[in-house]
Design brief:
Blueprint lengths: L5 E3 L5 E3 L3 E2 L7 H12 L4 E3 L7 H11 L7 E6 L6 H15 L6 E4 L11 H17 L6 E4 L3 H8 L8 E5 L7 H9 L3 E5 L11 H10 L3 H11 L3 E2 L6 H7 L9 H8 L17
Parallel strand pairs: 3-4, 4-5, 5-6, 6-7, 7-8, 8-9, 9-10
Antiparallel strand pairs: 1-2
Helix pairs in contact: 1-2, 2-3, 3-4, 7-8
């Protein structure tokens, strides 16, 4: 396995096994340089979102990288205030403009049950999904999916969808493996993407993970990202430091033993669980 290796989505689109996340990366020079550093380091999968506020900077880095568009995989997401058919069409159009792209490779519904639409989330998701299916058919995105959807959100979407989501991006890391949703996704041909694959900074202070990393002469981040890949997740690590960006992509020259994997498996709950999508205040 290498940084250029891919998973295959349900529609046969290839998606690189490691993505570069840009959540909490400030717009402007920081987002621009971090994205450019990731592309220089060999990443070909960049993950952003409308709410991150950095699509323009990410887009400039993509343009300035000189990498052919067809060699890149770019994801962005529909924000909560834009759920609905016409709203989704407009939101995707705006994201494409900010990114400076004719199409994205993956477009996701960011959250299933926004506070603005709590009494009609099912219909709003259905309407957004219809717009996304049309965008997919019209070549504005090569794949469509969701994020933070639990089983009941997916089951509701299936009632009206003519195309199933190809991806579900979730809070997945050693602290929360969300086993039931992960298994449901797999059963329906939906790839599990892992945002916050390193959880919070707390993981870097755990002696049991440090011990594994020291024995393998790897960083804690490398060990945990390798664990994520071994679980069949697609991790999306984020950093704004060039050396860490490079390190986080160096996951393919070592293996975790069964004992190492068990050690990391036992970190459940050590640094929190995913937010309840039906209770979020946004």
């Amino acid at each position: 396995m290498a940084l250029t290796d891919t998973f295959t989505l349900a529609n046969n689109v290839k998606i690189p096994v490691l993505g570069f996340g840009t959540w909490q990366t400030p717009d402007g020079d920081v987002a621009y340089q971090a994205t450019l550093d990731a592309l220089k380091a060999g990443y070909r999968h960049i993950d952003t979102a409308a709410i991150y506020g950095n699509e323009e900077s990410v887009g400039r880095a993509i343009a300035d990288s000189g990498i052919p568009r067809e060699d890149l995989f770019i994801t962005t997401k529909l924000w909560n205030t834009d759920h609905g058919y016409a709203e989704t069409q407009a939101a995707l159009k705006l994201s494409l403009k900010k990114l400076g792209l004719d199409y994205v490779d993956l477009y996701l519904i960011h959250w299933p049950n926004p506070i603005d639409f709590r009494n009609e989330w099912q219909q709003r998701n259905a309407d957004s999904w219809r717009a996304m299916e049309e965008a997919y058919q019209n070549g504005l995105t090569r794949a469509i999916g969701v994020s933070n959807f639990q089983i009941h959100h997916l089951e509701e979407l299936f009632k009206t969808a003519t195309i199933k989501p190809m991806v579900n991006q979730l809070f997945l890391n050693p602290s929360d493996t969300d086993d039931e949703v992960v298994a449901f996704n797999k059963a329906h041909g939906i790839l599990n993407e892992a945002y916050s694959p390193l959880g919070t900074g707390a993981i870097f202070d755990l002696p049991e993970v440090k011990a594994v990393a020291n024995r393998l002469n790897k960083t804690v981040a490398q060990v945990v990202l390798r664990w994520s890949l071994d679980k069949g997740f697609l991790p999306l690590p984020k950093s704004t430091h060039a050396e860490r960006i490079i390190e986080n992509g160096q996951l393919f020259d070592f293996e975790l033993s069964a004992k190492d994997t068990a050690t990391i498996d036992n970190l459940r709950g050590k640094f929190g669980f995913h937010k309840d999508a039906d209770q979020v205040e946004f």
